[in-house]
Protein backbone atom coordinates (compact mmCIF):
# COMPACT_ATOMS: atom_id res chain seq x y z
CA UNK A 1 0.00 0.00 0.00
CA UNK A 2 1.27 3.48 -0.89
CA UNK A 3 2.60 5.65 1.92
CA UNK A 4 2.42 9.45 2.12
CA UNK A 5 5.69 10.90 3.45
CA UNK A 6 5.89 14.51 4.58
CA UNK A 7 9.10 14.52 6.65
CA UNK A 8 12.53 14.38 5.08
CA UNK A 9 13.89 12.11 7.85
CA UNK A 10 11.11 9.56 7.13
CA UNK A 11 11.81 9.68 3.40
CA UNK A 12 15.51 9.08 3.98
CA UNK A 13 14.82 6.19 6.37
CA UNK A 14 12.43 4.55 3.92
CA UNK A 15 14.76 4.87 0.93
CA UNK A 16 17.77 3.75 3.01
CA UNK A 17 15.83 0.61 4.00
CA UNK A 18 15.07 -0.22 0.40
CA UNK A 19 18.64 0.31 -0.68
CA UNK A 20 20.01 -1.79 2.19
CA UNK A 21 17.72 -4.56 0.95
CA UNK A 22 19.38 -4.25 -2.46
CA UNK A 23 16.36 -2.67 -4.12
CA UNK A 24 16.59 -0.17 -6.97
CA UNK A 25 14.69 3.06 -6.37
CA UNK A 26 12.83 4.97 -9.07
CA UNK A 27 11.58 8.54 -8.86
CA UNK A 28 8.90 10.55 -10.66
CA UNK A 29 8.78 14.29 -9.83
CA UNK A 30 5.39 15.94 -10.30
CA UNK A 31 3.46 19.03 -9.31
CA UNK A 32 0.36 16.92 -8.63
CA UNK A 33 -3.04 17.16 -10.30
CA UNK A 34 -2.12 13.85 -11.81
CA UNK A 35 -3.51 12.40 -15.03
CA UNK A 36 -2.84 9.35 -17.17
CA UNK A 37 0.37 10.96 -18.47
CA UNK A 38 1.84 11.07 -14.96
CA UNK A 39 0.65 7.54 -14.31
CA UNK A 40 2.55 6.38 -17.41
CA UNK A 41 5.73 7.89 -15.89
CA UNK A 42 5.15 5.94 -12.68
CA UNK A 43 4.55 2.73 -14.64
CA UNK A 44 7.78 3.27 -16.56
CA UNK A 45 9.63 3.90 -13.28
CA UNK A 46 8.14 0.65 -11.98
CA UNK A 47 9.61 -1.20 -14.95
CA UNK A 48 13.05 0.26 -14.24
CA UNK A 49 13.08 0.02 -10.45
CA UNK A 50 11.87 -2.14 -7.55
CA UNK A 51 10.36 0.72 -5.57
CA UNK A 52 8.95 4.03 -6.82
CA UNK A 53 8.71 7.40 -5.07
CA UNK A 54 6.64 10.14 -6.72
CA UNK A 55 6.86 13.68 -5.41
CA UNK A 56 3.94 16.10 -5.38
CA UNK A 57 5.13 19.67 -4.91
CA UNK A 58 3.84 22.81 -6.62
CA UNK A 59 7.16 24.58 -6.85
CA UNK A 60 6.87 28.36 -6.35
CA UNK A 61 10.32 29.14 -7.78
CA UNK A 62 9.42 27.96 -11.30
CA UNK A 63 6.38 30.21 -11.71
CA UNK A 64 6.86 33.74 -12.99
CA UNK A 65 4.92 36.81 -11.81
CA UNK A 66 1.36 36.60 -13.12
CA UNK A 67 1.62 32.88 -13.86
CA UNK A 68 -0.71 30.29 -12.34
CA UNK A 69 1.09 29.35 -9.08
CA UNK A 70 -1.85 30.35 -6.90
CA UNK A 71 -4.52 28.69 -9.01
CA UNK A 72 -2.49 25.59 -9.96
CA UNK A 73 -4.86 22.75 -8.94
CA UNK A 74 -3.95 21.06 -5.62
CA UNK A 75 -5.62 17.65 -5.56
CA UNK A 76 -3.57 15.61 -3.09
CA UNK A 77 -6.19 12.95 -2.23
CA UNK A 78 -6.88 12.18 -5.88
CA UNK A 79 -3.13 12.24 -6.56
CA UNK A 80 -2.53 9.62 -3.89
CA UNK A 81 -5.12 7.31 -5.47
CA UNK A 82 -3.68 7.89 -8.95
CA UNK A 83 -0.18 7.09 -7.71
CA UNK A 84 -1.32 3.97 -5.91
CA UNK A 85 -3.19 2.77 -8.99
CA UNK A 86 -0.08 3.29 -11.11
CA UNK A 87 2.08 1.31 -8.66
CA UNK A 88 4.01 3.94 -6.68
CA UNK A 89 5.19 2.94 -3.20
CA UNK A 90 5.48 6.40 -1.70
CA UNK A 91 4.17 9.90 -2.30
CA UNK A 92 6.77 12.46 -1.20
CA UNK A 93 4.77 15.51 -0.15
CA UNK A 94 7.18 18.14 1.15
CA UNK A 95 6.06 21.53 2.43
CA UNK A 96 7.47 24.76 1.00
CA UNK A 97 9.45 25.08 4.27
CA UNK A 98 10.99 21.63 3.84
CA UNK A 99 11.97 22.42 0.27
CA UNK A 100 13.22 25.95 0.97
CA UNK A 101 14.23 26.00 4.67
CA UNK A 102 15.80 29.48 4.47
CA UNK A 103 12.65 30.99 2.95
CA UNK A 104 12.22 32.36 -0.54
CA UNK A 105 14.87 35.02 0.03
CA UNK A 106 17.52 32.45 1.01
CA UNK A 107 17.29 29.90 -1.78
CA UNK A 108 20.55 28.37 -3.07
CA UNK A 109 19.79 28.50 -6.79
CA UNK A 110 20.92 26.04 -9.44
CA UNK A 111 21.10 27.37 -12.97
CA UNK A 112 21.90 25.57 -16.21
CA UNK A 113 23.27 28.03 -18.75
CA UNK A 114 23.14 27.33 -22.46
CA UNK A 115 19.96 25.29 -22.73
CA UNK A 116 17.76 27.67 -20.76
CA UNK A 117 17.97 30.87 -22.82
CA UNK A 118 15.82 29.84 -25.79
CA UNK A 119 12.26 28.68 -26.50
CA UNK A 120 10.50 28.21 -23.11
CA UNK A 121 13.39 29.90 -21.33
CA UNK A 122 13.04 32.99 -23.52
CA UNK A 123 9.28 33.20 -22.93
CA UNK A 124 9.31 32.27 -19.23
CA UNK A 125 12.39 34.00 -17.79
CA UNK A 126 13.64 32.26 -14.67
CA UNK A 127 11.35 29.25 -15.15
CA UNK A 128 14.13 26.72 -15.71
CA UNK A 129 16.19 28.19 -12.85
CA UNK A 130 13.26 27.25 -10.62
CA UNK A 131 13.02 23.79 -12.19
CA UNK A 132 16.72 22.98 -11.73
CA UNK A 133 16.67 24.50 -8.25
CA UNK A 134 13.84 22.22 -7.14
CA UNK A 135 14.85 19.09 -9.07
CA UNK A 136 18.38 19.23 -7.60
CA UNK A 137 16.78 19.31 -4.13
CA UNK A 138 14.41 16.47 -5.02
CA UNK A 139 17.30 14.37 -6.29
CA UNK A 140 19.20 14.98 -3.05
CA UNK A 141 16.14 14.19 -0.96
CA UNK A 142 15.03 11.02 -2.74
CA UNK A 143 18.46 9.62 -3.74
CA UNK A 144 16.86 7.54 -6.49
CA UNK A 145 18.77 5.32 -8.90
CA UNK A 146 16.55 6.27 -11.83
CA UNK A 147 14.27 9.26 -12.49
CA UNK A 148 11.57 9.47 -15.16
CA UNK A 149 10.64 12.71 -16.96
CA UNK A 150 8.04 13.16 -19.70
CA UNK A 151 9.00 14.17 -23.23
CA UNK A 152 6.16 16.67 -23.36
CA UNK A 153 8.37 19.07 -21.42
CA UNK A 154 11.07 18.53 -24.03
CA UNK A 155 13.31 21.41 -23.07
CA UNK A 156 12.92 20.64 -19.36
CA UNK A 157 14.35 17.19 -20.07
CA UNK A 158 17.34 18.74 -21.87
CA UNK A 159 17.89 21.14 -18.97
CA UNK A 160 17.75 18.30 -16.41
CA UNK A 161 20.16 16.21 -18.51
CA UNK A 162 22.55 19.15 -18.56
CA UNK A 163 22.32 19.59 -14.79
CA UNK A 164 22.74 15.88 -14.04
CA UNK A 165 25.87 15.75 -16.15
CA UNK A 166 27.30 19.03 -14.90
CA UNK A 167 26.72 18.28 -11.21
CA UNK A 168 27.41 14.53 -11.60
CA UNK A 169 24.17 13.46 -9.96
CA UNK A 170 24.30 9.65 -9.63
CA UNK A 171 20.90 9.15 -11.24
CA UNK A 172 19.89 7.60 -14.54
CA UNK A 173 17.39 9.68 -16.51
CA UNK A 174 14.63 8.03 -18.50
CA UNK A 175 12.50 9.96 -21.01
CA UNK A 176 8.89 8.85 -21.28
CA UNK A 177 6.70 9.23 -24.39
CA UNK A 178 4.00 11.91 -24.55
CA UNK A 179 0.55 10.60 -23.63
CA UNK A 180 -2.25 12.11 -25.74
CA UNK A 181 -6.01 12.34 -25.50
CA UNK A 182 -7.92 10.46 -28.22
CA UNK A 183 -8.06 13.64 -30.32
CA UNK A 184 -4.28 14.18 -30.13
CA UNK A 185 -4.08 16.85 -27.41
CA UNK A 186 -1.07 16.17 -25.19
CA UNK A 187 -2.20 15.48 -21.63
CA UNK A 188 -1.48 18.35 -19.25
CA UNK A 189 -2.79 19.51 -15.90
CA UNK A 190 -3.40 22.88 -17.55
CA UNK A 191 -5.88 21.41 -20.08
CA UNK A 192 -8.57 21.62 -17.42
CA UNK A 193 -8.36 25.43 -17.49
CA UNK A 194 -9.73 25.33 -21.07
CA UNK A 195 -13.36 26.23 -21.77
CA UNK A 196 -15.21 23.57 -23.83
CA UNK A 197 -14.70 25.68 -26.98
CA UNK A 198 -11.00 26.22 -26.30
CA UNK A 199 -10.62 22.52 -25.52
CA UNK A 200 -11.82 21.81 -29.09
CA UNK A 201 -9.47 24.44 -30.52
CA UNK A 202 -6.53 23.05 -28.52
CA UNK A 203 -6.34 19.99 -30.76
CA UNK A 204 -4.97 22.29 -33.49
CA UNK A 205 -1.57 22.37 -31.80
CA UNK A 206 -0.86 18.67 -32.45
CA UNK A 207 -2.27 18.95 -35.98
CA UNK A 208 -0.02 21.92 -36.71
CA UNK A 209 3.02 19.96 -35.55
CA UNK A 210 2.00 16.96 -37.65
CA UNK A 211 1.63 19.26 -40.67
CA UNK A 212 5.06 20.73 -39.87
CA UNK A 213 6.57 17.24 -39.72
CA UNK A 214 4.96 16.27 -43.05
CA UNK A 215 5.99 19.49 -44.81
CA UNK A 216 9.55 19.20 -43.51
CA UNK A 217 9.64 15.59 -44.68
CA UNK A 218 8.49 16.70 -48.14
CA UNK A 219 11.42 19.11 -48.35
CA UNK A 220 9.83 22.42 -47.37
CA UNK A 221 12.47 24.69 -45.81
CA UNK A 222 12.22 24.61 -42.01
CA UNK A 223 11.73 28.38 -41.70
CA UNK A 224 8.70 28.11 -44.01
CA UNK A 225 7.45 25.11 -42.04
CA UNK A 226 7.65 27.10 -38.79
CA UNK A 227 5.96 30.12 -40.34
CA UNK A 228 3.12 28.03 -41.79
CA UNK A 229 2.52 26.15 -38.53
CA UNK A 230 2.42 29.41 -36.56
CA UNK A 231 -0.03 30.86 -39.10
CA UNK A 232 -2.19 27.74 -38.78
CA UNK A 233 -2.31 28.16 -34.99
CA UNK A 234 -3.04 31.87 -35.21
CA UNK A 235 -5.89 31.16 -37.64
CA UNK A 236 -7.27 28.59 -35.17
CA UNK A 237 -7.39 31.29 -32.46
CA UNK A 238 -4.09 30.83 -30.62
CA UNK A 239 -1.68 33.58 -29.59
CA UNK A 240 1.56 31.88 -30.65
CA UNK A 241 4.69 32.20 -28.50
CA UNK A 242 6.81 30.11 -30.86
CA UNK A 243 6.89 27.28 -33.35
CA UNK A 244 10.45 26.05 -33.82
CA UNK A 245 12.19 23.18 -35.54
CA UNK A 246 15.49 22.19 -33.95
CA UNK A 247 17.98 19.40 -33.72
CA UNK A 248 17.01 16.98 -30.97
CA UNK A 249 19.55 18.55 -28.60
CA UNK A 250 17.68 21.82 -29.22
CA UNK A 251 20.56 23.42 -31.10
CA UNK A 252 19.46 25.63 -34.02
CA UNK A 253 18.69 23.77 -37.26
CA UNK A 254 19.34 25.32 -40.68
CA UNK A 255 16.35 25.53 -42.99
CA UNK A 256 17.63 22.53 -44.95
CA UNK A 257 18.81 20.54 -41.91
CA UNK A 258 18.44 16.76 -42.06
CA UNK A 259 18.52 13.90 -39.56
CA UNK A 260 16.70 13.59 -36.22
CA UNK A 261 14.78 16.80 -35.56
CA UNK A 262 12.01 18.03 -33.32
CA UNK A 263 9.21 20.54 -33.88
CA UNK A 264 8.14 22.44 -30.77
CA UNK A 265 5.27 24.83 -30.18
CA UNK A 266 4.02 27.02 -27.36
CA UNK A 267 0.79 28.94 -27.76
CA UNK A 268 -1.88 30.52 -25.62
CA UNK A 269 -5.65 30.17 -25.69
CA UNK A 270 -6.96 32.91 -23.46
CA UNK A 271 -4.93 32.68 -20.25
CA UNK A 272 -4.00 29.02 -20.80
CA UNK A 273 -0.58 28.32 -22.24
CA UNK A 274 -0.05 25.00 -23.98
CA UNK A 275 3.17 23.37 -25.18
CA UNK A 276 3.69 20.36 -27.39
CA UNK A 277 6.36 18.80 -29.58
CA UNK A 278 6.87 16.13 -32.21
CA UNK A 279 10.10 14.34 -33.06
CA UNK A 280 10.70 13.46 -36.69
CA UNK A 281 13.43 12.40 -39.13
CA UNK A 282 14.20 14.21 -42.31
O1 LIG B 1 7.41 18.84 -14.89
C1 LIG B 1 7.00 19.20 -13.77
O2 LIG B 1 5.90 18.83 -13.32
C2 LIG B 1 7.88 20.09 -12.91
O3 LIG B 1 8.57 21.01 -13.70
C3 LIG B 1 8.83 19.30 -12.01
C4 LIG B 1 9.84 18.49 -12.81
C5 LIG B 1 8.04 18.37 -11.11
C6 LIG B 1 9.62 20.28 -11.12
O4 LIG B 1 8.79 21.02 -10.32
UniProtKB/TrEMBL annotation:
Pfam families: Pantoate_ligase. One of its GO terms (cellular component) is cytosol. InterPro entries: Cyt_trans-like, Pantoate_ligase, Pantoate_ligase_C, Rossmann-like_a/b/a_fold. It is found in: Cytoplasm. It catalyses: (R)-pantoate + beta-alanine + ATP = (R)-pantothenate + AMP + diphosphate + H(+). Pathway: Cofactor biosynthesis; (R)-pantothenate biosynthesis; (R)-pantothenate from (R)-pantoate and beta-alanine: step 1/1. GO terms for molecular function: ATP binding; pantoate-beta-alanine ligase activity. It comes from the Bacteria. One of its GO terms (biological process) is pantothenate biosynthetic process. Its EC number is 6.3.2.1. Belongs to the pantothenate synthetase family. Catalyzes the condensation of pantoate with beta-alanine in an ATP-dependent reaction via a pantoyl-adenylate intermediate. The reaction proceeds by a bi uni uni bi ping pong mechanism. This is Pantothenate synthetase. The gene is panC.
